[in-house]
Target: Levodione reductase
Amino acid sequence: MTEPALDFSGRSALVTGAGSGIGAAVARWLDAHGIATLHLVDVNAEGMAALDLSCEVHRHVHDVSDPQFWGGFERAAGTLDHAVVNAGIALGGAPIAEQTFQHWRRVMAVNLDGAFLTLAAALRLMQANGGGSAVVTSSITAIKPVPGIGAYGVSKAGVAHMTRIAAAENAARGIRVNAVAPGGVDTAIWDSGEAFRKAVEDHGREGAIAAMGAGTPRGRFATADEIAGDIGYLLSDMAANVTGVVLNTDGGFSL
Ligand code: NAD
Model:
């Protein structure tokens, strides 16, 4: 039997970036914990189609940084209990002095503008609903300045602070807003980085992930399912007194 505080029966949730990695794992986690309705958003139609879920599912093949999508989404969804603001890109990167403005803007458009549009739409639906909870996917790079991925790190610091502000603005309305800040997680996001692609050429994908994980205190990267469990906890009634928190889920990387 599901622990009552982890039971999502009768509720609805929005998950962005649900076509792969952490977002797909969250969709599976919520489905396993009784969610009634899932609204999945991703530009990756195939990834969302591949998810085998037993709840009512609405798949939206859209770019989260498109403001027009969110107006239509609010009208179509009508009501919402939970949101996972998770879609994101990394795209490799470069030191600040060498970073192109085009790259900077693209990362901000998806990771920061997209997260703002998603969270704002979700908050309006939850406010009308009289309560709810949201979790935003930040990153440990929001706290630890990792050289060479400045646009990504700044975008993730932005969403961490947006989380705290939204939490302060909505606590009295019965809406909790938290974030997770994962360290390395074995997902497809790594495949967009040039340094990682070179490591894959030399060691294979599994070897490249293992080599990077070996350099962390835990000795390995997290799985997407592990991060989904952290997100599920923060979304759930088990975390009823937790809001405005950015939870480091990094296997000790930030220590
Ligand atoms: P992933 O690449 O497996 O999944 C990201 C998903 O977001 C993909 O399905 C992609 O199509 C989707 N997406 C990208 N841009 C989009 C857009 N404009 N509109 C809609 N969907 C879009 O990677 P992941 O690791 O599961 O990433 C999920 C989140 O976790 C991201 O925000 C990422 O920054 C964050 N994160 C990942 C790690 C890690 O090591 N994997 C660490 C910290 C934080």
Notes: Residues 101-129 form the longest helix (29 residues). Helices lie at 21-32, 45-49, 67-77, 101-129, 150-170, 194-214, 224-235. Strands lie at 12-16, 37-42, 56-61, 82-85, 132-137, 175-182, 246-249.
